[in-house]
Amino acid sequence: MLAVKTRSGLVETTHDGAVAVVTPDGQLIARTGDIDRPFYLRSAAKPFQAAVAQGMGARLGPVELAMAAASHDGQPVHVAVVGSMLAAAGVDASSLRCPPAWPLSAVSARRLAAAGHIHARREWHNCSGKHASWLRACVASDLPIANYLAPGHPLQQAIATYVTELGESRVGPVGVDGCGAPVLRTSTRVMALLYARLAASSDLREVFDAMHRYPALVSGSGNGDAELAIALDVAAKRGAGGCLGVAVDTRLGVAVKSWDGIQAVADVAMVAALSALIDLPAVAADRLTPIARPPVLGGGEPVGEISPRVELEWQ
C-alpha cells in the first residue's frame, strides 16, 4: 500500500502501488509492491526522449532542454519558449502533431479565455515542448517532419532503441500516448533504473542539470515533481497514470507507480520513500509538506489528508 485518504477521522480510500529504488549499476536497494507489473512510462519518458533529440542535433540550450522534458502548465513562459524552439527550426505551431489543448494551468486558461480566445491551440498542449524538440531534431537530421510521430519514423525508432538499452528492458510493443506519440512500456523496477542512470550517466548530465535548474519549466509551480526538484538535489518527472521518477544526483533512481493513477498518491509515496532513503533537511521537509500529506477538503476546509503507508523492503 502507498497511501490512505482519511476524511473526518475515517479512512475513506486506500491506494495500492509499487516503489523501487535502484543504483546506476542496476542493484535493487529497496522495494514494495509488484515492481515488475508492466505499465506505460507516459511523460516520465520525456527526459530520455529529450536526450535522443539532443543527440540527433536539436542543439537545445538548457532552458529549451528543460522544456523538451516538460509536461508544462501552459503558462506564458512555457508557450514563449516553445515558440522560440519552433522558430529556431524554421517551423511554426502548425507543424506540431500534438492535439490542440487548453493549458493545464487553470489561471492561464482563464487568462486566455478572458483575452477572447475560443479555440484550443497545439502550442498550449502540455507536451508541446517535447514535440518542438523532436521537430528540431528532424530538421537537423534531414528527416521528414510530417510523420514524426509514426512508430517507424527514424526518430521514434532511435528513442525506442535508446530507452531499451538504457533500461535493459524492451519498451515495446508501444502504445499511443495522449499527445499522439508512441508510448513506451516499463515496470517500476525498470523505471527506477532509467532514473538512476539519469542521475549518474555523463551522457544524460545536461538533461539532469536542465531539469534540476528549471523545475518550473519542466512542470509548473506547485506540482509535485517541480517541488521535489526545488527542495532536493534531484531531477523529477511525473507521468500520467500516477507514475513518478526521481533521479537522486549521482546516486539512485526511485520510481513510484500508483495503480489507481492518482498523481497525489504517487507524490505522497515518493516523499515517504525519499525520507527513508536520504536525510531530508528541515527546510526541504517543510517545503514538501503540501505534497507529502495533502489535505482533504470538506466545505472548503481541511477535514483530513492523504497520508503515506509505504513500507520499503530492503534488499
Account of the protein in words:
With 315 residues, the chain is α+β, with helices and mostly antiparallel strands. It has one domain: Beta-lactamase. Helices cover 41% and strands 20% of the residues. It contains twelve helices and 14 strands. The strands form four sheets. A six-stranded antiparallel sheet has the order 9-10-11-3-4-14. α1 packs across α6, α2 crosses α5 and α2 packs across α8. It is globular.
**What coarse outline follows from CA principal-axis ratios?**
globular
Radius of gyration: 19 Å
Q: Going across the biggest sheet, name each strand in turn.
A: 9-10-11-3-4-14
By CATH, the topology is Beta-lactamase
**What is the CATH architecture assignment?**
3-Layer(aba) Sandwich
CATH class: Alpha Beta
Number of helices: 12
**First-residue to last-residue Cα separation:** 18 Å
Report the helical percentage.
40-55%
Helix/strand order, N-terminal first: EEEEEHHHHHHEEEHHHHEEEHHEEE
Give a quick account of the main beta sheet: strands, pairing sense, barrel closure: 6 strands, antiparallel
How much strand?
Answer: 15-25%
How many structural domains in the coordinates? Answer: 1
Q: Averaging pLDDT over every residue, what do you get?
A: 97
**Uncertain residue segments:** none
Structural class of the secondary elements?
alpha+beta
Please give the number of β-strands: 14
